[in-house]
Every structure is written in structure tokens, then in C-alpha cells.
Amino acid sequence: MKLKPDVRSINFKTFVYFVLFAGTLMLLLWALQVLFLNNFYGIMKSSQTKTVASELQHSYLHKDQENFFLDISNLSRSYDLNIYVITYSGGLPILVYTTPGDDIRDDYSTAIQSLYGQIREDGIGSAELDQTSGTMPKKMFAYASVLNQAGCGDDYEDAVVLYVFSPLRPVTSTVKIMTTILIYVTIISLILACILSLYLSTRITRPIRKITRSAERLAHGEYGVVFKGGHYTEINNLADTLNSASIGLEKSDLMQKDLIANVSHDLRTPLTMIRSYAEMIRDISGENPEKRDQHLQVIIDESDRLNNLVEDLLTVSRLQSGKLSLEQEEFSLTDTVSAIVSTYDIMADQGYRFTVDCPLDFIVYGDRDKIRQVVTNLMTNAIKFCGNDRLISVSLKKRGRAVRFSVEDHGPGIAAEDLDHIWERYYRSSSNMVRSAEGSGLGLSIVKEILTLHKASFGADSTLGQGSTFWFEMDIVRAEKLTEEDNPNG
Ligand code: ADP
How far is C-alpha 404 from the geometric centre of its chain's CA atoms? Predict the structure, then answer.
């Protein structure tokens, strides 16, 4: 059993964060409630006293004396205040109101004198004293306000002054109770933080652990594993991504194996042919020039096939390693296409017919050799899958600011479910009956890579049993009229 916790684990970190959070919250509460309670209480009391004074000021100005006194009595009772109203005449005090059953205590009268002195000195119509001032009784806040501000003269000699005394009750006992409560709250919240962090982190880590185990199985080549998510969108997304990665891996692994099988087959067939025909020349046809030439031609054709296959493999490997860069220039797509189509002229003997529909000389910007390869690959496929009529129609048409090259055949076509995949490496659609040795399954993936590098759009439209049209589009730099000798139709 591991005793040392993994400090980088989600479990440990969630636990620490939760405990820290709960701890900070508790500390704040302690600080606010216990340490500052005294200050809060003092501030609250002073603001309450001032509010009462302003209410009474209002009552003095707008109500008759009886109601004014009634207000004083009510407010002093509800807020636990001692209230006095003193009228001054030429500076001499006459007590006109005191809280019922209350005579001015000696210590209050010193405070009253001090407050009145302050009012006269400051000239702002109000004054206050708290327990820090020497003239104040302990644990007391006092506030004085001149009620007849308008008619009392500048030196407040004939003022009517309201005195409000608010006792500050000791909060020590309250603080003690609060401390006990807070100790309980702290313990409970820390326990809750632990439980919650454990619960949360387990809910997060359990699916991650499962995913890790599945990934380990995948790493050992078990492609069928399913990654299961959990209760969280992020983990579900991760599981989904890994599931599709696993499917992709399985597919690519299958394709790689397929490729090796195909390539070895593709290599073996021409090699066997070359060897057998070489033997035939040595043993049989060496003396017969006609036969010998025929056999030599087979050897040459098969070597070409080998060459093409190796060429394709090299291009794919260069594309895969990202080493293929474009050497772009302006060139005539019309010329390039016509030149390629004319190389197939010799196939007319075998019944192949090629039509080219191209109204203008389209100048485009791109890598001429690579585009030539694209056109060749698409043409080769069209010939390979051309159907009984052996008719292949090539066209270059203006579409907006682009020119669309398309090559159409009337062959077996491609099933809709295969259509998205034919551009993948090593993919061969199941719907055509061409033997695997006819192609490496690399042609269209090369086309796709080159056109993607050119940022050109491309695609294939096909109906099963009726034929296919492969196309790509490139931006036109300019389009010129064709001269008589250029005319590919001519
Ligand atoms: P291959 O060398 O096998 O032709 P490609 O990458 O050129 O490889 O083509 C991939 C697959 O797409 C082919 O095996 C074939 O199934 C399908 N395909 C390509 N072009 C055509 C077409 N013109 N008509 C029907 N199927 C086609």
C-alpha cells in the first residue's frame, strides 16, 4: 500500500483546494465576527443614534409639541436610548424633556455641557462624543443636534438642543458564544470539505482511470476497446475523441497491412513476369526476333509498372513527411491537359475515345508538374474504370473566377458510402471489380494532397453503374482565346 500521497493527483489537489477554501472562509468569518464585532457594534450604534436624531428633528419641525414628545418616548423605548431636550435662553439651559422616569445623571450633565460647548465652538449645529472622550461616561455614545437651527442665532445662545445617549452594551459574552459556534462551524465545514472533495475527485478520476486502462489496451494493439465517458462533458469529449482516434488507428493499421500485402503482390507479379519472360527469351525466343521483341516489350512494360509503383510510394512518403513543396508559376492548364490527353492517342487502336471540351486558354498559378500528376492520375483512373463505351470526356470550364477541370467516364461508378473514402490512402472501393494489382490505392490520395497544397477545391460525383466525374478547380490568372493550332478540339 502506498502511504505517500501523490501530490500531483486530482484527488490530492481537490482535497487541498477544498480544505484551503473552507479554511479561508472560516478565518474570514472569525476575523469579521470575533475581532471586528466590537468595532461594527460601535459604528452601528452611532449611525442608529444619528438616524433617531434626524427623525426627531423632522418631528420637531413638522409636528406639535405633544406628538413630538410622544415620538421621543417611543423612539427612546424601542432603541434603548436616553433622550433629553434642553432649551437655552441666553446660554442658560432649561430641561424641557427627558425620557420618562429619567433625570439627567451627573456624568451625563458633564457630557451635555461638553457637547453644547462643541456645538457653539464648531458652529455646525451638531456634535458627538464617544467613549474615548474624557467627559463621557464609559460605554456610551452621545449625539447632540440643534432643533431650531433657523432661529437660534449664530452663537447658539437660544438653541433648542436634542441630546441622545446610546449605551454600548459589552459584547464580550456575545463574542464568546460566537466563538463556540464558530469552532463547531469550522469543524463541520472542514469535514464537509473533505467529504465533498473526496466525492468530487472520485467522480472525476474514476472515468479518467478507466480511460487510461482502455488507452493502455489500445497501446497494446487491442483496437476494439471502447472509451467510456463519465458525468462531465469534458471527459465525455475526451472519450469520444479517443474512440474516433481508436477507430482511425485501427483503420490506418488495416490499411498499412493491406498496403504491404498489396505492394508485395504488386511487386511480385511484374517481377515474376520479368523473370519468366527473360527465361523464355533465353530458352525459346532468343533466336526468333519477332517473338523476342514481343517478350522484351512485356519486360519493358512490367518494369514501367514497377517504376510507377515505386514512384507512387516515394511521392506518398514525401507527402507524408511534409517534404513536398510547390514550385509555383503561371502556366497554361489548357496546354497541360491537352498534352496529357494526346499521350493517350495511341490507345485509340484499342477502342478508347477521348473528347476534350475547352473553349479558352486558361492560365493558372501553381506547380505545373504536380498538376500534371493530378491530371494524369485522374485520367489513369478514368481509363481504368471506363466502362464498355471506352469514352472519356475531359473538359475545362470557367466557373466564376475559377476554371474547373473534369474527367468523366461511364464505368462502374462508386457507391455513395465509398465516395468519401476514395481520397484516403490505400483505399479501394468495393464496388469495382478491377484486380488489386491494377493500382496501389495511392493515386487519389496523391491528388488530394497536391490539390490541398494548392488550396484548390476538388471532388467526385458518381452514380453506381453509370460512371463517375472527377473534378478540381483552380483560380484563373487570365483566360486567352485559343489560336488555331492550340485548339485541343481541333
Ligand atoms: P488505385 O491506384 O487503386 O486506382 P486510387 O487512389 O487512384 O487508387 O483510387 C482509389 C479507388 O477509388 C480505386 O481503387 C477505385 O475503387 C476508386 N476509383 C477511383 N477512380 C475511379 C473511377 N473513375 N471510377 C470508379 N472508381 C474509381
Answer: 37
Q: Residue 55 forms beta bridges with which residues?
A: none
Residue 393 has pLDDT above 60, yes or no: yes
Q: Do residues 128 and 141 lie in contact, with contact meaning Cβ atoms separated by under 8 Å? A: yes
Q: Which residues touch 23 (CB under 8 Å, ≥6 apart)?
A: 190
Q: What does the longest C-alpha to C-alpha distance in the chain come to?
A: 155
Calculate how far, in angstroms, residue 436's C-alpha sits from the geometric centre of ligand 1: 10
Cα-based angle 433, 435, 437 (whole degrees, multiple of 5):
155
Q: Count Cβ neighbours within 10 Å for each residue of 225-248 and write b for 16 or more, e otherwise.
A: bebebbeeeebeebbeebbeebee
Instruction: Indicate the range of 37-41, 99-103, 413-417 predicted with least confidence.
Output: 99-103
CA trace torsion 236, 237, 241, 244 (10° rounding): 60
CB of 254 closer than 8 Å to CB of 428: no
Distance separating alpha carbons of residues 214 and 471, to the nearest angstrom: 42
For residue 285, pLDDT beyond 50 = yes
Q: Determine the length of the chain.
A: 490
- Picking from 135, 128, 127, 88, the residue whose alpha carbon sits closest to that of residue 111 is 135
pTM of the model: 0.51
Expressed in angstroms and rounded, the spacing between residue 407 Cα and the centre of ligand 1 is 13
The predicted pLDDT at position 355 comes to 94
Grid coordinates given for 38: 466590537
Cα 66 to averaged position of ligand 1 atoms, centre (Å): 108
pLDDT of 2 above 70? no
428 CB within 6 A, ligand 1: yes
Does the C-beta of 488 come closer than 6 Å to ligand 1? Answer: no
Question: Does ligand 1 lie within 6 Å of residue 210's CB atom?
Answer: no
- Ligand 1 within 6 A of CB of 467: no
Integer Cα distance of 177 and 186 in angstroms: 14
Give the three-class secondary structure for 4.
coil
Q: Which residue has the cell 414628545?
A: 69
Q: Give the H/E segment covering residue 475.
A: strand 467-481
Say what the pLDDT of residue 322 is. 74
For residues 194 and 172, what is the distance between their CA atoms, to the nearest angstrom? 33
